[in-house]
Amino acid sequence: MNRQLHLGYFLFGTGYHPAGWRLPEGKADGSYDIDFIVETAQKLEKAKFDFFFLGDRLATTPSMQHIFPSQMTRLEPFTLISYIAAVTKQIGLIATVNTTYSEPYNVARYTTSLDHLSKGRASWNVVTGSDPNAALNFSRDKHWDNEKRYDYAEEFIEIVRGLADTWEDDSLPKNKKTGQFADPAKVHELNHVGENFSVRGPLNVHRPIQGQVPLITAGYSPRSQQLAAKYADMVFTGGNDLEEAKRFYREVKAKLATYGREEQDLKVLPGLVPIVEETDEAAIQKYNQLNELLVTDFDLTALSERIGYDFSQHDILDAVPNLVGTKQGEKWLKLTSAAIGTEDITIKDLFYFFTSAVRGHLFVVGGADKVADLIEMWFVEEAADGFNLCPPYLPGGLDKFIDLVIPRLQQKGIFRTDYSGNTFRDHLGLERPENRFNRVKV
Fold this sequence. Notes:
With 442 residues, this protein is of the alpha/beta class. It folds into 2 domains: 6-277 and 367-441, TIM Barrel (Alpha-Beta Barrel); 280-362, no CATH class. The chain is built from 14 helices and 11 strands. Strands 1-2-3-4-7-8-9-11 form an 8-stranded parallel beta barrel, surrounded by 7 helices. It has a two-stranded antiparallel ribbon with strand order 5-6. Helix 6 links the parallel strand 8 (234-237) and strand 9. Helix 2 (77-86) runs parallel beside helix 3 (104-117). The chain starts with 5 loop residues before the first strand and ends with a helix.
């Protein structure tokens, strides 16, 4: 079977670009307008996207309003994704869980319940949290270090997966004649006792329709790769450099064999932020329009630190100085040049692109052919198995991708024209796993 591209949608209610909501046609309340969110989910399903994804963050501040307004305030993921489950039929549904500030028994209940409500379309995205302010919202003095968070997350995942198996598939005979509703021999205590948790079980929700709800992780670090290779069905990544993305793809796929897994068992999906129009010129105009709406004092500190050059000694309208030999400088110059279609770049141009793309996703400005060709190149050259779409503004940023790019991807033969099944596992080409307690009996 030929490899197929996977596409998902990451809800940023005001658009991924910090100024997306300020466009005359931009949506400013997309994080709360439930009719709009429902319409978006149904639109994605009609276009045959693999999934609708909700991120999360457990701390906030008004200072985010000019940097990332879509993440400043938004609805709790499982509450919202359950609503979406009721108004869709086939698209996969992903809600984010911060394992550092959650309990595995509760999360097992949420994910398994969602799988039943959605008829097998649920998934969960594991994050360990990067914002130290979250600790102060959960009665802790400080945020745990990276190693402790990942150790905690691994044990957490083991428990959630174990609890999902505590009821075997045929453990509820519901025999009206004999009066036997449940078969005690097919219901199991987990009896987990570990470094961080003690969980007896069984779960009080029957086994998920998918057997195990697909698991998503994110990140580039060695520990993130290890977590993905061991547990994940899909890994979200950043990255806007093709060669770096190919290297990550090879490295994380190579780790799968350690855990008895095959390359096709893990899908690698970078984020994609497309400003797409009919032509390159129209896309550049839209990009410039978005940037001019940024609320900024042109503080060059972050840009200078990332590139390793003090830009504050220049005027913002000066041409970018010679950065040859500076790896980050050459990279960001190349990306900026590709976005605006010229090599004559000012510091202001560089600042605008850096501000829009600093969070690391693949940021592309261009006509439909350019965007479709870029997606195909990353897919064919095994830098990605697909993309997590982050439209820069709504609803137009999504609509134009669906109307202009999706048909081109289908014509290239790399994206589906219809779903091959009804569960998220079907979309990902994953088998339904056997219950661990069945394996014990063999």
